[in-house]
Structure formats: C-alpha cells, structure tokens
Amino acid sequence: MLPSEPGYPACTTMQRRTDHPRRAGRRPVTDRWAFKPVALLLLAATVAATSAAAAIVLAPPFLAAGLGVRELDRRLEEAGSDFTRIPRFPQRSTIYANDGTTILARVYLDNREIVDLKDISPAVRKAVLAIEDSDFYEHGALDIRSMFRAAVENIRQGDIVQGGSTITTQLVKNTLGIDAADQSLERKFQELALALRVEERYPKNRILSMYLNQVYLGNNVYGIGTASQFYFHKPASELTVREGALLAGIIRAPAYYDPLKRPKKALLRRNDVLNRMIALGPEWLSEERGQRIKESDLALAPDVGELRLPKPPFIVDFVKEQILEDPYGWYSVLGATPEERERSLKEGGLDIITTFDADLQQKAQAAADLPWARTPAYPDHDPPADLGIVTVDVPTGAIVTMLSGKNYFTDEIDTVTTAHQPGSSFKPYILATAFLKGIPPTAIYSGSQTAIDDPRCRDAVTGAAWTPTNAEGRSAGSMDLYTATANSVNLVFARLILDAGLPETVATAQAMGVQSPLQPVCSLATGSIGISPLDQASGYQTIANRGVHCKPFAVTEIRRQEQPLYVHRPDCEQVLPKVVADLITELLVGVVDHGTVGGYFDYSWGDWPVAGKTGTADSNTNVWFVGFTRQLSTAVWVGSQGNPYSLGEYFGGDIFGSTVAAPVWKAYMVQAMQGLPGRDFPEPHLVSVPRVIGLPEEAAIAALKEVRLKVATEVVDSYLPAGTVAAQTPSGGSVTLPRATVTIGISTGIAPVLRMPKVFDLTAEEAIALLESLNLFVEIVEVEVEDPDEVGQVLSQGPPPKTVIDEGSSVTLNVGVAPPEGTGNGGGNGNGGGGGNGPPEPSPLRR
Questions:
Q1: I want to staple 525 with a disulfide (CB 3.0 to 4.6 A). Which of 99, 214, 494, 627 is the partner?
Q2: Opening angle at CA 99, ends 96 and 104, nearest 5
C-alpha cells in the first residue's frame, strides 16, 4: 500500500497486516510484489473498470463537441434511468412549536441525529477525510490517481482490497443501497454516472455533510452525531482526535471494527487512521501527538451503548402519529399510505409547524409539579400517580398543550390519548342529549338512592336491577337539573339518561368530539366507560364554542424548502344549537360558582368567567376537572394508570376531582389566561312555559305557539270539561328551550276513578303535593296539638285511605298546629273561658 493511500498501515515491507475482514486467516505474503495467477485476471478486470470510469470522466468535453450535452444525457439515460437519476438524498424533517422557530424535534430515518457540518469537530472531519478521501476537495466526482493506486494494490495483494472510491461515490452508494459486493462494470457505471451529477449540483461542503450524517457506524447507529452520543456521550462538536479517528476507522467495516465486540480490532483500525493522518503531514496530525494517542485506549464512555439523544416531548410523538394515521384525511399531500407518509416525514426535509405553545407547555409542567392535595390534613403530599393535561383553543380546535404525565421523558406513558373513566365529567353529554330532546332544565328528578328497575339497565347475567349510588353514599331529594348538575347527583342523571336515550347520548357525545368508543349502557350516567383527556377537552370545546365542534388538530402548516405543502383550515361544524350549548354552560357555571368546586375558585382565580365539571370514578382511581373559558378548554386527569389504586388511600381520605384535579387545573389555567381578556358567557335564551291547564284546546295551542313552542296533544280522562286542557308537560311556569315540544292532555270530560291514598303521617306540604298531582282539591283544617313533633303533620284525612273517589273531588286534611302563645293547656277550642280562638276557618280549596 502506498503511503498516500487512505488506510496506509504501519507495517514493514516484509510483513502484511491480516486484520482486514477479507484477509483474516490468510497466510502472510513474504514477497509483496509476487503475482499470483489470479492477479492477471484481476489486472484485466481492474484496468477495464478503471478505463470505463476514466472514459466517463473524460468523455463530456469531447462528446460535447461532437454529440452535444443532450446526446450525452440521452446515452446515459439509455444505460438505465435508475443509474443516472440523481437520488433524493434523505433530508431531516424539523418539528416546530406554533411560533415557527422553537424546535421541538428533528425527525430522520433510522437511529440518527442530524448535525450541521459546522457542529462536527474539525478533528473528526480530518480523520474521515484522511482515511476515506484525503483529496476530496481537490478532485471531482472521481479520483483517478486513487483509482490507479487501488488497482496496483489489488494486483499486489492478489485480491480486491482497495476500491479507490471517493466520498461522493460512497454517498451515492449508501443512499441508493447499492450492493457493495457487486463489482460489475454496470454497478461501477451507475455509481460514477450519479457521482458526476451530484458533484455538479452540490458544493463540496454539502456533500461532506450529507456523507457524515448518512454513514453507518455500527450498532444501528447512523451519522457522526448519533455515534458521538452512542459511543462517547457527547456532542459531535466536542469530539477529540482520538475519538474522531475511532469513528473514522469504523466506516470501512462497522461490524468487523465494532469497538464494543472487537475492541482490539477497533484499536488497531483507529491507529491505522492516525498513521494515515501523520503521513499526510503536520497540518493533519503531528507525529508526536499521533504517537501519544496511539498509546491510549479507545476512551469509550463508561456506560457506552446507552444512547443519549435528547428525547422529544409527547407532543412530537402525537404529531408523527397523526400524520401517519391521518384520521381526518388531512395529510394525503405527503402520501396516500402510512408507509409513504412515514417516508416523507423521515426523509422529506419537511418543516412542520405545530399548534403547540411552548410557553403554555412549561406552565402545564409547573402546575403538574405542584402538590396536588388541598386537604388540610395532607397539605404536603406530592402527586401519587399519573397526570394528563390537554388544552384546546376554543374557536379553532388547535391543541395548544399536551402534558402526558409528570415526566414523559422517563416514563414514556401516554396519559392524554388513553381512555380513563370520566366519572361525573361525562354528565354534560347527558345534559346535551336531554335538552335536544326537549327536557327542560327545570325538570324535576329524584335523587333517591334506590334501585332502577329498567329493562335497559338490568344485569345481563342475573337480571338484577341497577343500583347506582351518589358520591356521598346517601339519597338526595327531588331537584331540578340546575341543582343536580352543581352538586353532581348521580341518581338524577341515572334517571335522566333513560329519558334522554342511551343510543342518543352516545351519538351526541361523539358529535361533540368524543372519539373513544362508547357503548349505550346505563352506566354511562356514572362515567364508567373510558374517555381520553383529549376527547374531554375537545368535547367541552364544543360547549364553550356555542355548539360548534372543531376537530382537534396539531399541525398548522407543512413546508418543504419554504414552499407550503399543507396549510390547515379549522374543520368545524355546528353540532348543537347555540341555546343548548349556552344552557349547558349556564349549568356548568353553577358547578364553579356554588357547586362541587365553588370553594376552589376564589379571589385568586381572576376575572375570567369559567365553567366546568368534576369527575371521580372507580374507587377514586380516576379524578377529573374539565373546564373552559371563552378562549381555552382544558381537561385535567389524575389517576393511577396501569396500576390502579385509590388516591384516597394515599391521601388518607375521600378524594374527588374537586380536591385534586381542580387545583391543578386552576394553577395551570390562571397562568395560561394571563394577558387574555375576561369574556362573559352568553346567556341562554330560554322560554317561560305558559300555564294552559283549564284553557280550551285552541286557546292553549295559540298561547304556546306565541312563545315559539311546539305542541303535541293527547286525549286524557279528566273531570275538567271536555275539550279543555287537563295536563301539560313541561308544567306552567317552568323554562325550556325555544321550539321545544309541550305535550298537553285534552280532557274527555270523564273523571277517572281513583283510590284515596294514605297521606296521614306525611307533612302537610308532602300530602298536598301528592293529592294535587292526582287532581284532587285539598281543604286544610288546623288542629292545635301539644306535641311539637305533630306540628305540620297530617293527623287525619277524609275520605280515608283506599276509598274510591272521582278525580276533582275534595279531600279534607287535619293538620297539627301549635297553640297560640298565652293559652293554657286546657284552653281547648271552645268559644269561652281561656281565651280560645274558636274553630279555625277552613283553608281555601287548593288544586
């Protein structure tokens, strides 16, 4: 091997190195210039290949005069278009935050970190050039001198041990994946023709940069930048001559010179590189310094093999997944299939501008790092479980924040697109469905904690009735939907979802943005089917945006070489009437104002109107707060994903969305809303339902239509005159949505027969309500009683229980009252002595 040849070994003229993979195990050659019989054949083949290459190099000037450049191109094309088309060299793609300048990640094919040429230390560049192509900056696509030197060395060694290739031809070969074992003239012609065109198009520094980022360096590591982190745990800019020489030496045979598996071979090869640098002169490496380095070890990192590339945040993984899966068909410009889009992403040199706000992401992380519990007994506990925060821009659907766990870089757990039981935070979807069906917010439902024996809710195996419970574990009275929502009464919603409809509730939730699969089962009312934080932020965005759902998106623009390939336009649709969304908002404001989280939004919150809903599910393993302003919709989930345990067990008490998730939401959103104006929520334009009972049918219909209500009629038996309204739903005086349907019952004039219910032992108020619901008139007779417990109670009734009576009949109730002050126990009810008041006047008839 000649001294100027890359890889010139430090050996005597009578010795031959046998550590090359093609020479290992062969006998030494004592006469380096002795020709074997095969050498003549090798000489012929090599001269032929060299002549062909030289002809390609020398041909253009002469052909240009005779055939012209077009004719040369035609002949090159005839040789095979795949041979002569300049390859599209893989270019890294860069993912940016929404400002277009903050880099979130760089994406490249294989295990590769791309670095600019200026960020690769000069020591590495010199080492690679010295051993691979020392005259790189002096020759064109081919190095004729090197080719002839290689031919001579191959003849001398009796084998093809040198190829004479240049950095440019190696780049072409690596990029196209050309079989290195193919030594045919056709393959050589392919390499050389392409190398010529590459040298014409790209400057030398650009070619060297592509080569250093493309080259394979063993152990599934590509490029100098990745190899620097893998072998030495440092950036490429800090590599020394010793480290650079090792990487340069690996290039020829990465598996053979693997410093992890064959450190001795790698050391010898590194010293070959150092010898070559010394041979090139002091400007490459002084002999004194080179000798010192040759005596040192490989200087690998103590925990070599642990790749220490910077890990991208979760949002980068989400963007890549969205582009590959393309659920809404937005990214077809990058390819028709996931495989094509992946290739464009990894090799297409894309600039991807995302919707993510880096500043808000940091604020979300800061909120996640705060202690979550606000209970006085446990003020200092750190978070015991996972966490997920997602924020969606209300007017557009842009995802501005995605925090997947406290430390995604370590845990790499997806908490924001994974489904978790939402608990009561699912209730707004039930409200939406009920309101769409015409059920008013003033509708009265029971919160009694009793079994619900509806066929749709029975256990599929045992047939047992459904027995949901309230969060407090006890029954609640009857109430309207305002109260039930503010206080999150499960049993009210368990009954409401049956009136709203199970399939209808699923359809409404999906239209509002819930993509997690839902089943039309009764337990939806208590939030037992999982929904992801992303879905929750998106669904509540629909409410905040007055019924307009915008599909959540993470990419605003994709560019290549400053040319836009894709620009996102919000994909929005009105899925709820404005009045329905505004009404849900009004009910959710009650949650924050005086409901389950009223105590957490005090003076420190700010002047931004906020609405939201808590959620607690599955033995306190999942707690939520999902809330919104006019600008941002944010879902916060806290739970023990993958290893469920009760947060209450950790904190030592009952834990709810209000005590854990809501404080995180507030800590983050109070920062996220800085600089944004406070915008009031629109008031829902509801209609007051007129009372039409007793009116003739035509008059009742006219009165209802006058206030933009629809009317449905049915015939009912009633004591009222035939043709008059005997019943109405919703009741008069309640409020409902415009164009909602009011059902009126038209009397037949035939009073139905009733059995008198038992009402004594009830309070007067309870008895009156029951009897009026049966269209009975009530007459109250007050009776003085000595026992305070009997005050306000029905003491007796007439007619007695189970008596058959007609609807519209009068009923008398004797109700206990306290005696007037100053009267004795014996005052009785007489007219004289003792100052008695005489018999009480009967109360007016009540209907």
A1: 494
A2: 25
- Please give the DSSP secondary-structure letter assigned to residue 808: T
CA–CA distances in Å: residue 732 to residues 208, 385, 453, 688, 728: 84, 50, 30, 8, 8
Q: Which DSSP string corresponds to 515-566?
A: -S-----GGGGGT-S-B-HHHHHHHHHHHHTTTEEE--BSEEEEEETTEEEE
Q: What is the distance between the alpha carbons of residues 382 and 239, in angstroms, rounded to a whole number?
A: 41
Can you give the length of the chain in residues? 847
Q: Rounded distance, CA 561 to CA 566, Å?
A: 13
Which has the higher per-residue pLDDT, 79 or 27? 79
**Predicted structure pTM score:** 0.71
Residue 218 region, left (φ>0) first, then alpha (ψ -120 to 50), else beta?
left
Round to the nearest angstrom and report the end-to-end CA distance of the chain. Answer: 117
Q: How many CB atoms lie within 10 A of CB 57?
A: 19
Look up residue 37 and give its amino acid: P
Q: How far apart are CA 632 and CA 391, in angstroms?
A: 7
CB neighbours (10 Å) of residue 376? 6
DSSP annotation of 689? P
Residue 652 in tokens: 């030592």
How many alpha carbons lie under 13 Å from residue 431 in its C-beta half-sphere?
A: 33
Give yes or no for a contact between 648 and 600, defined as CB atoms under 8 angstroms apart.
Answer: no
Q: pLDDT digits over 18-63, tens only? A: 334 333 333 333 333 344 454 445 445 544 554 554 444 444 433 3
Nearest CA-CA partner of 466 in 425, 524, 505: 524
Six token digits for residue 639: 């739970």
For the residues of 579-644, what is the DSSP string, one character each?
HHHHHHHHHHHHHHHTSTTGGGSSTTS-S---EEEEEEETTTTEEEEEEE-SSEEEEEEEE-TTS-
Which amino acid, 53? A
Distances from the Cα of 80 to the Cα of 59, 64, 195, angstroms: 18, 20, 15
For residue 133, give the nearest of 165, 160, 163, 161 by alpha carbon. 165
Both tokens of 769, joined, read 């309500």
Give the separation between CA 249 and CA 257, rounded to whole angstroms.
8
Q: Which of 424, 385, 479, 470 is nearest to 626 (CA)?
A: 424
**Contact partners, residue 673, CB within 8 Å, separation at least 6:** 606, 608, 629, 631, 632
Omega before residue 690 within 30° of 0, cis: no
